[in-house]
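User: Hi! I'm working on a homework problem where we have to compare a predicted structure to a textbook description. Could you give me the structure for the chain below?
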Amino acid sequence: MFELDRLMRVIKRGRPIRRGSTRLLRLIQQQPMITSTQCAEALDIRVSSINERVLRLVEKGLVKREALKSDRRRNGLMITKLGEDALLSLQHERDHFNDKINEILTEDERSQLSILLRKLSDGLECR
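Assistant: Happy to help. Predicted structure tokens:
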């Protein structure tokens, strides 16, 4: 299983944000002025965990907080230009990765890999 561990390190190398934060950033992009509580519900994550991720995204300049017009005591979340650029960069990276896989593996090998990865995912989710 060293090969799988090595592959995951190669994939993660140089990523500006982690997968969970990417999902949060996409949600904020799709629903401007969403609250942390709404994010937690949508992603099925504790509010405290969302708040930690939001803090990191704010510190990196990817997200900003703005007071809601309906209730100035509460904040909504907005993606920044830098956040938009980060998502676009991640999409380009994903497309490039998929292109590389298509270059390296034949169609039959990609099919076999897909079946094996699905089997692994299903088996690991059951635990």
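For your comparison, note the following. The domain at 15-125 is CATH 1.10.10.10 (Arc Repressor Mutant, subunit A). The first strand starts at residue 63 and ends at 67. Good luck with the assignment!
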